[in-house]
Amino acid sequence: QVQLVESGGGLVQAGGSLRLSCAASGRTFSPRSMGWFRRAPGKEREFITAINWDGTSTTYADSVKGRFTISRDNAENTVYLQMNSLKPEDTAVYYCAAPERARPTIRTTVYDYQYWGQGIQVTVSS
Fold first, then answer.
1. What is the rounded CA–CA span in Å between residue 71 and residue 3?
2. CA-CA-CA-CA dihedral for 46, 49, 51, 52, to nearest 10
């Protein structure tokens, strides 16, 4: 009932920046918390960051604190991930995700999300 489509990403040198976008749509979609995850080769999908329904609260994994910023524009049904000071270890497929319904708190595990984007590649060269 909810579709998520990521855009942006690509190849960037270490120290550079990229901005990912995630557009949400669907007849049942309403403002709710949204998250970003990533999966590097040979690794499990891991939590990166999440934002609550109105953008007043955010949570970040320690690995990206101070470098990544999540934001949203509910008028456009879009969530963004600004990635600065990128490192080679940031290389992964990045996924936008949404839960099936609104929750009172931000969730940080893959099991808390039911709707996923197709994933988009981010490659950081050294």
1. 19
2. 50
* CA gap 72, 45 in Å, rounded: 22
The 3-state DSSP composition of the chain as helix, strand, coil percent (nearest 5) reads: 5, 45, 50
Q: Per-residue pLDDT tens for 52-69?
A: 998 999 999 999 999 999
Tokens 């690509």: give the residue: 10
**Side chain identity at 104, as an amino acid letter?**
P
- Each residue of 64-92: pLDDT tens digit? 999 999 999 988 889 999 999 999 999 99
| C-alpha span between 5 and 21 (Å, rounded) | 8
Q: Which residues contact 88 (CB under 8 A, 6 or more apart)?
A: 14, 124, 125, 126
CA distances from 56 to 15, 53, 70 (A): 28, 8, 11
